[in-house]
Amino acid sequence: QPPTDLQYNQHSNGRNKTQESQRRKQKHNLTMSSPLYDVEKNPSPALEAETKPVEKKASSLRTWGPAMVAVAGVIAINAALLGPTGNGIPPLSDRHLKARKLSESRTSDVMALDFDALADHKLFTSQRGFGSRNLSDDEGGVMEYTRRRHRYLGEYTHVDVSDEFSALGKWSTAVIYFAFWVFLMFPNWFLPIGRPGIALGGGLTMVVWRFLLQITGHGPWFDAERVIIMEPLFLLFGLMLTTIYLEKMERGGLFDKLRDSLDDPINWKRSFKIMAMSTIGSAAVMNDSVVLIFSGVVVDLCVKNKVANSLPYLLSLATTANIGSALTMTGNPQNILIVSLAYDDIPWLEFATNMVLPVIAATVINGAMVFIYYSKELFPGSSGLFENFGIVLGGNRTPEMLAQEHAFYAREAAAKEVKGDEENLGWTIWSKLQIIVVVLFLAAFAIGLDVCVVSICAGCILMVMTAWKRQHYDPKPDNVDYDAEGNPLPPKKTYDMDGNEIEPEEEELITESETTLTEVDYGLLMLFIGQFLLIGSFDDTGVPQAFFSLTMGGCAEQMTSVPCVYWFVMVVTILSNLASNVPVVQMLAATFPYATPYDWIQVSFSATIAGNLTMLGSAANMIVAFQAAKVGDRTFTSERHAPFGIPSTILSLYAGTFILTLIHFSPECSVRLGECEE
Questions:
Q1: Continuous H helices in 496-580
Q2: What is the pLDDT of residue 393?
Q3: Which residues are within 8 A (CB) of 267 and not within 5 positions of it... i.e. 6 or more apart?
Q4: Nearest to 615 by CA among 187, 300, 219
Q5: Which pLDDT does position 19 carry in this prediction?
Q6: How many CB atoms lie within 10 A of CB 440?
């Protein structure tokens, strides 16, 4: 029996609704794509055969295998050189015995000298150090310099209060520190608080716990103000201020031109440009400055080019920033501290010439590992390592790379059509003023002015320039209301309580406090304050010193001599990741007050390269992760950093250490101590 008209209409309406529902789902699937992860869902089963199969997630063994092999290699090398139980440690040579005798004699002579405690305190606080190294004979010469330095190291730089802790106080403080260290390393494993909140909570917890230990007699008084190092906080604030105004002052200005200079249609070339810029910039200025400025730039480039995985580019920035900062004495905070605390003078040129070859070797190793580890992202369509060599050396292209290149230039052409004549403006007066401020900033830094003051002054100058530009140069906002037909409406009149008309102000002033200053990452400052409190309290317990003495054993007095140097740099690397590199340098300066310039060169290289081992090994890593997460990119995590960071750090560290043992220009003896005299 044929269906009636009503039955036919009901069936037709149901089929139309089903088809409409399917079309909506297909349209939804087509439009579901992230600007960072350019992955589109299939609009229909007909296209399912054309899609590539989903790659399986790498196994834990494949992810962590290289790191495990690198750690096993370190253990095997040191066991072969020093013996499985340290029985292969060589006895002290005549040079080391002479250095020990001179050190003991110099220390006893210095301790016998009279001094004015009030005058020393004024000197140390006014100059933030022990003063000049080159004192005249009337001022006391080398002995007075040694006395001042000895007292400054022992009472201001690294105060040893570990003997005032009870066993309960010492180990409970260490447990609290390591608990928050794990929380900071893996913040996503616990409550969604974030690293700044975890660090600040840990610091406050440590302050309260130390107070309880003090009133119960289980620990000394905790000088929390002393352990908070203000210079890095001032530097970060000044750099954030400068960076924000360089970016916000003008569209298409210096910041945008700098970002465009790093862009490239080829993925591996873009990564190479980032590594080159990061290495050179960190050596010239400071690694924290470079990553703070360019973290957002790198993420913007990944979003612009629809990169599926931004981790290779963020690793390129962070790891090479740490490596490049090892080249100069002003590249990072620990290098600055080493030069200021060393017993003998280490000139700028001597420091750099020692570091050139190790830094080049570490840079090449790290860059090659980035290209090998992330070859699928950097060399799309490549069949393997040999084809990658052909692409890098011969300029070859895969079809996927050609498609990316064509898409890149198509976007550039479309952007030029949209911008029109704006693209041909060139360098405006505001861009030129930005360049002048940046050049003056770099010049002031190069001649030795306080980088904290310089960075804050640069930010304030740019703030005044931006406020002037917005008030007197930029077009005024249109605050006129319009009706439905587009005709302007007269301004609304307002009256006071007496019925008098209130004349409107000519324009409402928008202050910098309401706009740009709110973009300063105060959470990043809180992160470092919390870490300073945690690390400072942990160092008071003496656990890092005990770990160093226990692990070094008979190598302590010949730490930079072969074969002990290979174990020494590994111990420094571990301590730098557990207790931070700056406190480790302070501890070594107090423990070995007469260390030679060559000793400090080895310490500087190992403590700097150690920053690439884990996420918490360097402030630069934390800044990159924080800045990237602020703009929505959370790929740079501890779990993704460590599988690459551990093998890269170990290979770079041992290659650079080997080169330093063969080629170095700093003396292996202390001139001021008299070791170099025959």
A1: 522-540, 543-552, 564-579
A2: 86
A3: 305, 307, 377, 378, 379, 380, 401, 404
A4: 187
A5: 53
A6: 14
pLDDT band of 411, cuts 50, 70, 90: confident
How far from 574 is each of 70, 460, 581, 586, 616, CA to CA, in Å? 14, 39, 10, 16, 11
Query: Which residues, in sequence order, are CB contacts of 287 under 8 Å at separation 6+?
Result: 321, 322, 324, 325, 331, 332, 618, 620
Query: So what's the pLDDT on residue 44?
Result: 47
User: Which pair of tokens denotes residue 174?
Assistant: 């260490």
d(CA 307, CA 270): 11
440-449 pLDDT per residue, tens: 887 887 777 7
pLDDT band at 426 (very low <50, low <70, confident <90, very high): low
> Looking at residue 162, what is its pLDDT?
86
Report in angstroms the alpha-carbon separations of 219 from 13, 167, 205, 592, 634: 81, 9, 15, 26, 40
Say if residue 592 is exposed, middle or buried (CB neighbours under 10 Å; 0-12, 13-18, 19+): middle
Q: Rounded mean pLDDT of 29-51?
A: 43
Q: What are phi and psi of 347, to 5 degrees?
A: -65, 160
Amino acid 374 reads Y
pLDDT at 252: 61
pLDDT in tens, 485-504: 777 777 777 777 777 877 66
Task: Give Cβ neighbours of residue 330 (< 8 Å, ≥ 6 apart).
Answer: 285, 286, 336, 445, 451
Q: How confident is the model at residue 47 (pLDDT cuts 50, 70, 90)?
A: very low
pTM, rounded to two decimals: 0.81
Contact between 279 and 324 under an 8 Å Cβ cutoff? The reply is: yes
CA-to-CA distance for 93 and 110, rounded, in angstroms? 26
pLDDT at position 655 is 96
- Measure the CA–CA gap between 574 and 99, rounded to whole angstroms: 27
Q: How far apart are the first and last CA of the chain?
A: 120
Alpha-carbon span 656 to 650, nearest angstrom: 10
Q: 3-class SS at 54?
A: coil
Quote the CA–CA distance of 387 and 396 in Å, as a whole number: 9
- List phi, psi (to 5°) of 654: -75, -30
DSSP string of 414-435, one letter each residue: HHHHHHGGGGG--S-HHHHHHH
The whole-angstrom separation of Cα 130 and Cα 342 is: 11
98-150 pLDDT, tens digit each: 999 999 998 898 888 888 778 877 877 776 677 777 888 887 888 888 888 88
Q: If you search the block for the tokens 């003051």, which residue do you land on?
A: 453
Q: Match 């160092």 to its residue by tokens.
A: 539
279: tokens are 């290495």
**Which sign does the torsion angle of CA 32, 33, 35, 37 carry?**
positive
How far apart CA 347 and CA 590 sit, in angstroms, is 21
